[in-house]
Amino acid sequence: QVQLVESGGALVEPGGSLRLSCTASGFRFSIYPMRWWRQAPGKERETVASITIFGDAVYADSVKGRFTVSRDNTKNTMWLQMNDLQPEDTAMYYCNADRGDPRTNYWGQGTQVTVSS
Predict the structure, then answer these.
(1) pLDDT band at 102 (very low <50, low <70, confident <90, very high)
(2) Residue 60, exposed/middle/buried by CB under 10 A (0-12, 13-18, 19+)?
(3) Long-range pairs, 82-87, Cβ under 8 A, ≥24
(4) In angstroms, rounded to a whole number, what is the distance separating the alpha carbons of residues 116 and 107?
(5) What is the residue-wise DSSP string for 50-107?
(6) Are 95 and 22 contacting, i.e. CB atoms less than 8 angstroms apart?
(7) What's the mean pLDDT in 90-108?
């Protein structure tokens, strides 16, 4: 059974940090490009960061310099280190494994990040 389980979301004050985790099971994690997405209320889902199977990362302009995505294929886990969080980062964050085919596109259930004073 394929599973992606996110964790680490929380309520944090502006300027704070969080580290999200995404743990995979039921498929060969090491051969899947991975992404973090987020969706705020009333907004479309957007890509936050993506990482190749080799660890090369790409970021949305809105998070460059503040967020860092990483993965450990031996642990079937991807992380998103988020620093200097701002209220506009408030959203549900999802991890996604995608090899470009609908049959190999998997999603987690999401973890809530709320940035507020």
Answers:
(1) confident
(2) middle
(3) 82/17, 82/18, 82/19, 82/20, 82/113, 83/17, 84/15, 84/17, 85/12, 85/14, 85/15, 85/16, 85/17, 85/18, 85/113, 85/115, 86/14, 86/115, 87/14, 87/115, 87/116
(4) 27
(5) EE-TT--EEE-TTTTTTEEEEEETTTTEEEEEE-S--GGG-EEEEEEEE-SSGGGEEE
(6) yes
(7) 94
